[in-house]
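The following record pairs a protein chain with its ligand, fe (ii) ion.
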Amino acid sequence: MKSIRVSALVPGMIVARDVFDPTGLLMLNEGTVLTTELITKLDFWGLDEVVIEEPSPSLKEQQEIAITPQIKAAHERAIDLTGSLMSNPEIRDGDALILKGMVGDIESQIQLNSNVLLNLCHIKTHDNYLYSHSVNVSIVAMIIGRGLRLDDNTLKNLGLSALLHDFGMTKIDKAIYDQDQKLTAEERIRIERHPVYGYELLCNAEDFSEDVLLGIKQHHERFNGSGYPDGLSGEEISLFGRIIAVADVYDACLSLRKHRPRMTPYETLKNLLGESRLFDIKILKALVTSMAIYPIGSFVRLNTGEIAKVIGINHGFPFRPDIRIYLDRNHQKLEKPIRINLSDGDYTQTYIQETLDYEESERMYVLFGDQ
Ligand SMILES: [Fe+2]
């Protein structure tokens, strides 16, 4: 964390220490994502400085590269493999080994570049939500775990637990959890048993350690005790259970479901931090400080409708990289691309709305990939 002058604050920064007004009243909680309105208020109250979160050292060390077709294909393969294993609710001899190998591969990719993997989670193209969600939660959980400096073996077990967190859903009729209508009380009770079903199914397999099993059983428990199946609170919930809870909601918010639209990464994070009593704040912080939302080379749409490529990351401003705009709001090619730094005070009203999907990105790569 570091102190920043109020005049240098930009939307998207995260408050690392509670902020009090000159009379001693609490103005902003630790974990608040700054908006233009909040910054104006801080200025109005005459505050000089605010302590904000800095990205974790692991993020700074990363080499910044774009999603390559190979990484994309590996992600798709992981989803297919998870799907083929989860389409049968019996774990067979050797399955655990295959899953552990796959989680190990994902972990190595995260060591190399977690930005790229995280961005894969932001681009939603896969039809089968349950399987792609499982892989994405595994990725996000391991990124959080790395931010918390868990050792290699613990990280792999965490990734495995996260990959299988919804395994119990295989015992529930797809028509129930995939429907448009509101669930009946009976259906809700059945769905809320899925953490226990998963735990029981995998207990029998004897290949999974207790922390892996507890992560599965406790991923819907909430820090304030409002979750299920056991209504545990605080550190009664295992570390894996607390991490997977955050990773699960993070990926679910980014996904388009029948009953609600998808959120942007920025909205997702704001939503999670706004619900901070439900989650372990240490874990939310590890998520926020471990990510660069938009890797270099990715194409994005701005709130102005313009299309741009990310060309530089500004550490401390995960949502506000350097970009080069190629298409105007009417999708007409600019005669000369415009480079702007979104963390610059002149651009506080401009922000990234979304990452382009695979097809749009590929078209952009053909036109502007090497510029
Ligand atoms: Fe679940």
